[in-house]
Amino acid sequence: MAEIIIGTIVILGVLFIGMAMDESAYAVDFANRGLAPSFAHPFGTDWLGRDMLARTVKGMTTSIQIGLFASLISSIIAIILGTLAATKGKKNRCFHIMAHRPFSKENRTWYFFDVRFNIARKKA
Predict the structure, then answer these.
(1) Angle at the Cα of 113 (from 97 to 79), degrees rounded to 5?
(2) Residue 84: partners with Cβ closer than 8 Å, 6 or more residues away
């Protein structure tokens, strides 16, 4: 349980630090190009003088934002399809098939993969 709490704190810390980071932290600075790791630049600088730690944090922030957005969209789609399957499932077979039996023969996508790649067991 402690690992989950620590991981959440680290991820949220990176997210908030990256969002609050000033653009000058990872801007081009030819005076500092190619520096080795030091206290001023813990990951060093690249050939354009950009701080690698700041770029890493900013990249992680972008990745976390994209992941959270994708999770949100996926959850919204799942809630809509689940609600439609629960309320209209008996009347409209399509919602029932998508929500309750995703790998059945009625689902055209799985049927395509079954026929195309012969995934299902062959009957003797």
Answers:
(1) 35
(2) 92, 95, 99
Cα–Cα distance measured from residue 35 to residue 85, given in angstroms and rounded to the nearest whole number = 59
Question: pTM to 2 decimals?
Answer: 0.66
Distance CA 1, CA 90 (A): 42
Q: How far is CA 57 from CA 24, 35, 53, 100, 107, in A?
A: 14, 18, 6, 41, 43
In the 8-state DSSP scheme, what is residue 51?
Answer: B
Report how far residue 81's alpha carbon sits from residue 114's, in angstroms, rounded to the nearest whole number.
24
Cα–Cα dist 59/43, whole Å: 14
DSSP string, 21-36: --GGGGS--GGGTTPP
6-55 pLDDT, tens digit each: 999 999 999 999 999 988 888 999 999 999 999 999 999 999 999 999 99
Segment 61-69 shows an average pLDDT of 94
